[in-house]
Amino acid sequence: MQVAVVHRRANDWCLLETRHHPGVIPIEERFPRPSVMGVLNVTPDSFSDGGVHLDPDVAAAAAGRMVADGAAIVDVGGESTRPGSDGVSLDEELRRVVPVLERLHGDVPVSIDTAKAEVARRALALGAELVNDVTALRGDPELAGVVAGGEVYLCLMHMQGKPRTMQAAPTYDDVASEVAAFLEQRLRVAVDAGVPEERICLDPGIGFGKTVEHNLELVRRLDVLTSLGRPVLVGFSRKSSLRRLTGSDDLLAASVAAAVAAYERGATILRVHDVRAHVDALTVAHAVA
Ligand code: HH2
Known about the structure:
This protein is an alpha/beta fold. The protein has eleven helices and ten strands.
């Protein structure tokens, strides 16, 4: 397959080259707008589904249900990044995710939510087609090479600080333009490392070193991110800002509203826990649009 590789330099778009990437269609074709990414945390301590999917058979069944409900891909993660979390060892992360990936291989389209090159390597060998790195290639110097060497998509996410302390005092002069500048720089790092640009999507990192108002501003001004020319992924599902806004512990309606708002402002992929409700809502929002 022939694909054009377009790089952004200053304010100009320029066609730099045309490359062959057999077998991998551009991310916009693989994930038309809107597409839903189901969240499957294989952790004891995640935000909202911690402990639910620790049994690999239970996790695999849940992933199958997400696809049946309309998810385009299921994001499997073995390390919680909730505020205050410390991270897990490589062995522990592999112990959590590999049995799940083995059960899903060939049946369910999978994304691996990891910052570790070795976890990504094992996941790709077991069929994962997207690497979702919340550190945007800052966590493990070998991850870019693993992604560049595989036929795989990449999500680069913005985070201010580290999960342990990121919610202590998030500060920005202009959150939308600072997040956009960061993502543009990480996009360039990924492309320079050999990851084809047409396989990359960008994510503002809702809740990762942001106040409620920062998160809302990022959705409100999502055009600042879409103008970078890459598909934007937004993960607002069940995040604590929604609880702060509504005062409710049931975050389903709030999550759906946030996803629809993000879609209407240009988001392509919505990362969500409750797949069915989001697919229905986005189907209607898309039909109206
Ligand atoms: N949010 C979480 C984890 N991974 N990846 C992307 N690209 N975007 C996100 O917004 C995002 C992410 C955190 O949410 P969750 O998976 O529910 O919780 P935890 O990190 O505690 O497992």
